[in-house]
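Why predict the complex rather than its parts? Because the way molecules touch one another can change local conformation, and only a joint prediction can capture that. The input here totals 467 residues.
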Amino acid sequence: MNVQADSASRPSKEQVIYANILVIGVWVGLALLFITYFIYLSGLMPSHVDMSLITQNWDKGVNEYLEITHSPHGWGWVALLGSGDFLNYIGFTFLALMTIVCYLVLVKGYIAKKDWIYAGIGLLEIVVLSVAASGLLGSGGH
Amino acid sequence: MLNTLGSSVNRLLVTVGVLVLSSPVGAFAAEQAVLGGGDKPWWYWPLILFVFCFGLGILAVMAGVGGGVLYVPLVSGFFPFHIDFVRGIGLMVALAGALAAGPGLLRRNLANLRLALPVALIASTFSIIGAMLGLYLSALNPDIIQVCLGMTIVGIAALLIFSKNSEKPIVTKQDAIGMALGLGGVYWDEGARENVEWKTHRTVLGFFMFILIGLVAGMFGLGAGWANVPVLNLMMGAPLKISVGTSKFLLSITDTSAAWIYMNRGCVIPLIGVPSIVGLMLGSLLGVKLLAKAKPKMIRYFVIIVLLFAGLKAMDKGLGLGLLG
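Output of the joint prediction:
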């Protein structure tokens, strides 16, 4: 085995950091989903939308569904964290935020290495994901 | 002995597949009862969905396709949920799977960050546009999305049948953009016991294709591994292993941006979202274990047939023909 070539095939430091953050984030995210879903189904916390109302209306378009169930869009769920159903959004949001967190670490690494092209690409990606996450784009469906 | 075990596992998997994929047909019939004031308890559909997604997770790993590409057409075709929710949750399903696979791929250098970052930026930007366009069309008339989804799924099935991958494409000369971005590297090929050097070409053309991939992924809520791999491998010349690994990792970024759009619009209902994600992930874990003993080719053909059927079913539903139930 060519030792020199073998070291070249090792992942970059950034890749390893990215992987380490991701592996923790995924398990925490899944645990959050599992725990909050258990709280939701067990009825430990009251639900904002009654189960029967959900099953009666999940065949309707999202705008109509939100209107009938008086559910929020965008980040409006944060105000309803006292409800068992909207508590589940913590897990969804955590998973969806993971990539932004990983990119922040990546960009820091690229800046330290003075790899300006990739630092720029990383920063742009953070902007794109943040805009998508912000709810500024098309969350007002009704 | 091993052959007998292998064929037993294959028979078992196909049986699981048939059971899983046939149960929604019954479910679809039952849906009519629900719509007509049926007396199904609230847990009925989430439970069926969990079992269904568990089976899908096994099949997806065996067939080498992402969970999202199976989830969206099948669940929208056979379950009573509106396509808005199916797409939103489909993206979360694909995102969770990609996030879970990411660390292993990055550590083994099979997902390459230098290759992934530029194309992820393009695909994720356009997946936002795709998601907004998809939601707009769906608000106008959901049948438009059903028909377009059906056509896309049939196209994907055709792509899976006819596209030929290239294990280690020969790239004689790297283009200027690929060189400037440093799109290349070395990975350890465990099978050949050697380091493989690689680089890409046709970078601009490849980038352009990721605009289309992002649009389709966002519009239909599909993971886009089926399109990422051929573009990275056949068009840009990345080795197959790097293409597959980078594609899976890419999904975690592309799907994130589109998933945010759907989530902010309210398209993720926890009651059906969590069983879908957990079911598919648990199924995938079992699928990986069974992979060593099964013949993935046979399962792959089975899944292609299912995709064809699901695509035709979506078109049938969107056009209101009622030919497929």
